[in-house]
Amino acid sequence: VNPSAPVGKVWLVGAGPGDPGLLTLKGARAIAGCDTLVYDYLASSAIVALAPPDCEKIYVGKKAGAHTLSQDEITALIVRLGRDGKKVVRLKGGDVFVFARGGEEAAELRAAGVPFEIVPGITSAIAAPAYAGIPITHRDHNTSFTIATGHEDPTKGFSSLDFAKLANPKQTLVFLMAMGSLAGIVAKLRENGMPGDLPVGIVREGTKPTQETLVATLDTIVAEVERTRFAAPAIVVIGNVVRERETIRWFDNGPLFGKRVLVTRARDNADDFAATLWEIGAEPVIAPAIAIGPPDDPAPAREAIRALEDYAWVVFTSRHGVDACFDALTADGGDARRFGRARVAAIGPRTAERLTSHGVRADFVPATAIAESIAEGLLERTQAGDRILVYGAQEMRDVVPDVLRAQGRAVVSVANYKTSHVRDETMARLAEETDVWTFTSASTVRSFVENVPGAGDLAQSKTVACIGPITAAAARDCGMDPDVVAQEYTVAGLVAALERVTARVLP
Ligand code: SAH
User: Looking at 9, 19, 35, 40, which residue is catalytic?
Assistant: First the structure.
């Protein structure tokens, strides 16, 4: 080893049990700053996506029976990367020290002189039951819990467990990796005096839209697992706490739980939407039908930012328009002060938020986020002859400028970005595989239909959800009958409307 070579650092990061929202802030920061991400199959794509674009991502597999790299090879890999001066995140499912061999990896790093940090994660042992409405402790039922492995390893494994101590109905037992040895575990607990009617809950794919829970008793659970073909990865919870599920079940009984929801909006915009869907147990399937880019002729937008304060009002009809305006301002060496005394209008709350993030508070945001409302509001706030600058998409409807001009306002309408249809061969398959299709603009509808032959027919077996009336009209034009039209024309409004309506529409 060359002593003057840069030494890297390794972060052993617990990714949590599946729901990407359960990653810690510290874990997210480590991932966002790493050179190399070493991950296995439990890692959700939303977490892997937090890595910087130029980050090297190394998949090390580890599905039971199909190891891509052995544990020794993984350890050797992170040691080598660390020695090469890389900032490495080793991402592990759940917590790094709960049956995850993080202790061994840390010891090897120490032996090799590679600095490391441990970022604990939320273990599936606690989170999977929690998402099934099973509290790990409860005053009425237990004063301790034990987390054990049920892994059948002839040398270690569950046979080394002290079942006489475990067989205490006042203690919650949690087994990981126990599906293969469940019958043996149950038999030992019964032999040691655990009551046959003690509740058992098994939670598979906990915290994910695919979560399933099986509840039975010690005497019936093995037959139930066989009957339902209940398979790993799963957490087995044994104890009276399982009874609480009846009362506090919360995640897997929502109307959108387990539904696969197609998100067709532009990729830059999809993240928030995806996060909202995860929270309600739905699985976002991201298939951007449109992309945002610079307008065909960038000159007018470049000109406009030189004279912002000549206008009485500057109007933003989307957050992309805001971003494009501030990008142009920055490129021109300017900042928010260029707005001077011009007042600023935003079409909706998200556009207004975007302005705030650039240091500008909107003077006017209409109650309904559509062009008609912002035009009307501006008429009330201006007089004939007032100069108004309207930023928007190249293909935007002319509603705002037309209404304002008709009443004598001097309107300059500037396209500072363009949305273009995306050609994507996988979209048709994704459309088939999803339960709900969401559209957040007329252009997403039109592009989607170009990509999905027979969309109109297929739509009849899907829930079609549109962000507002204009988008819904575009869907109808394209032969799809919208099942859900949001009342508040935002993603939050769309999800709320979906939740209300799906309870009735979906099987
Ligand atoms: N370090 C991990 C455990 C790794 S061992 C943690 O703290 O969660 C792998 C076992 O974890 C699986 O066999 C299964 O028993 C359990 N497991 C991991 N993720 C799970 C999930 N989302 N739902 C249910 N069980 C899970």
Answer: 40
- pLDDT confidence band for 156 (50 / 70 / 90): low
- The answer to whether the CB of 466 falls within 8 A of the CB of 487 is no
Q: What percent of the chain has pLDDT over 90?
A: 83
| C-alpha pair distances (Å), 94 with each of 13, 127, 272, 345 | 9, 9, 23, 45
pLDDT digits (tens, 9 = 90+) for 199-244: 999 999 999 999 999 999 999 999 999 999 999 999 999 999 999 9
Ligand 1 mutation target, pool 99, 124, 185, 212, most atoms within 8 A of CB: 124
Chain Cα centroid distance, residue 464: 21
Question: What phi, psi does 478 have (nearest 5°)?
Answer: -95, 10
Distance in angstroms (rounded) separating the CA atoms of residues 144 and 128: 18
Q: Exactly one of 9, 62, 86, 418 is catalytic; name it.
A: 62
Q: Are 148 and 167 in contact (CB under 8 A)?
A: no
Residue 377 reports pLDDT greater than 80: yes
Q: pLDDT digits over 10-53, tens only?
A: 999 999 999 999 999 999 999 999 999 999 866 788 899 899 99
Q: How far apart are CA 292 and CA 265, in angstroms?
A: 10
| Annotation says 310 is catalytic | no
CB burial class (10 A; 0-12, 13-18, 19+) of residue 246?
exposed
Q: List all residues whose CB is within 6 A of at least one atom of ligand 1.
A: 17-18, 42, 92-95, 98-100, 123-125, 128, 176-177, 203-207, 232-235
**67 vs 363: which has the higher pLDDT:** 363
140 part of the active site: no
Distance 172 CA to ligand 1 centre (A): 17
Can you tell me the distance from the alpha carbon of 485 to that of 506, in angstroms, rounded to the nearest whole number? 15
Mutate to test the pocket of ligand 1, among 62, 136, 151, 176 (most ligand atoms within 8 A of CB): 176
The question of whether 398 is a catalytic residue gets the answer no
Residue with CA closest to ligand 1 atom 13: 177
Q: What is the pLDDT of residues 293-315, one digit of tens each?
A: 999 999 999 999 999 999 999 99
SS3 459: helix
In this prediction, residue 418 carries a pLDDT of 92
Is the distance from CB of 472 to CB of 438 less than 8 angstroms? Answer: no
